[in-house]
Amino acid sequence: MSLIMTAIAKNIKVALLQFYAGANKAENIKKATDFATKALKQHPDLDLLVLPECFNSPYAVDQFRKYSESIPDGETTKALSQFAKEHGVNVIGGSFPELGDDGNVYNTSLSFDKTGKIVAKHRKVHLFDIDIPGKMTFKESSSLHSGNKATVFDLPGLGRFGLAICYDIRFPELAMIASRSGAGIMCYPGAFNTVTGPRFWTKFGVARAIDNQAYVILCSPARNPNGGYQAYGHSMVVDPNGDVVVEAGHNEQIVYAELDPSVEKDARTAIPLSTQRRFDIYHDVSVDAKKGAL
Length: 294
Ligand SMILES: O=C(O)CCC(=O)C(=O)O
Prior knowledge:
binds 2-oxoglutaric acid, 294 residues, alpha/beta, 7-stranded mixed sheet, globular, Nitrilase/N-carbamoyl-D-aminoacid amidohydrolase, 6-stranded mixed sheet
């Protein structure tokens, strides 16, 4: 018996819905379902739809609370659940601002199986607090609270997924946890920007794919011609060898890919990282972490 595990159950046909959000929340939700409908019209046999980060709200720290809603009774959750159920399709629902029971606001991603059931909820763990002098300052923590767990889940018939949001991708640990738990696909709804996007977006997609010999899905909002936060776009799928399978431009569009379990199996068989790991050496990398060390 092969020791190499493949975490994808079948060929998975996926669509990445790259669109931007405007000021009207109801219109943003409708746009999401319109894009989803269009994708299914073009490819009725799709298994999975993926939406971008923060798809029902402008990406602005002073707006998140206004657009936030509770889960599962908020309008965004209901719309996505209903769409998944009506069309019998799995949905990784980008992210949107969640109003938690504790009164705090989170950047949260929900996934739905094809019966419309919520099968995963990830609250962004690492908040985007950066200051690049003269170029960009952003402080998500001024209005958002962070999540406190890594997210791994199964979509029945498709396989095991890891889920994280945007800036989370810079911390390889979340993808490692998912992969060590048997995930074969790592998905990041993410809104990189025109400063850090060109430099880092593709590299992170490729890095996480190679690290874990897993498919990586990145789904971004499109760039908004009416100003505000300028997302990088370039939604993409990267295969377990680090090859980019499909990549969008920066305008609104839908891109399609097929995830093939044999590609993952071949990658993992050819270079058998999973049987060569030395957990005796790096069983817990946090143990010796020193204050101020990377
Ligand atoms: O990591 C980056 O460069 C961008 C992250 C980001 O835009 C976000 O977390 O929303």
